[in-house]
Design brief:
There is one protein chain. This protein is an all-alpha fold. The protein folds into 2 domains: 74 residues; 52 residues. It has 8 helices and no strands. The chain is globular. The mean pLDDT is 85.
């Protein structure tokens, strides 16, 4: 639909740097190789986004991760997750009945400080950051 005055607003074309494009290709190649061996999507996700994961190492900054999310390689990577089976989940109903929505975790100060720094860099609360990290690992259960 045209904007006021009959002129359509130009869509801002997003460009991804050559460096991020190269990293995206490298990450996709790694993911395709690991997907062939992975038992389920969680195993592949951990290899990519877990501690020491390939994506974590290749795309250390928020701006790189944001740029990667706009690439065709990212879309192809997520289709790999969709093709893999979900991990087996047993007795979820029993677990749900005992869950109260709160946990307490003791951390080394260095880990706590690192999480606080990451939350600040991402512009979210520590609770939001930890919750997103947990949900990413437990997506098949929730």
């Amino acid at each position: 639909m045209p904007a006021r005055g009959g002129v359509m607003a130009a869509r801002k074309k997003t460009t991804v740097s050559r460096g991020v494009q190269a990293k995206a290709r490298q990450l996709l190649a790694f993911a395709e190789e690991r997907a062939a061996q992975a038992a389920d999507w969680v195993e592949l996700h951990n290899a990519l986004f877990g501690l020491g994961g390939k994506a974590t190492a290749l795309l250390p900054t928020e701006s790189e991760r944001t740029a990667f999310a706009k690439t065709a390689e990212c879309k192809r990577l997520f289709t790999l997750f969709d093709r893999l089976p979900s991990p087996a989940v047993k007795d979820f109903g029993e677990l749900l009945a005992t869950a109260n929505g709160a946990i307490s975790v003791r951390l080394p100060r260095s880990v706590h400080a690192a999480l606080l720094a990451e939350a600040k860099a991402e512009g979210v609360s520590l609770n939001q950051l930890c919750l997103s990290k947990l949900v990413a690992q437990l997506r098949a259960v929730i």
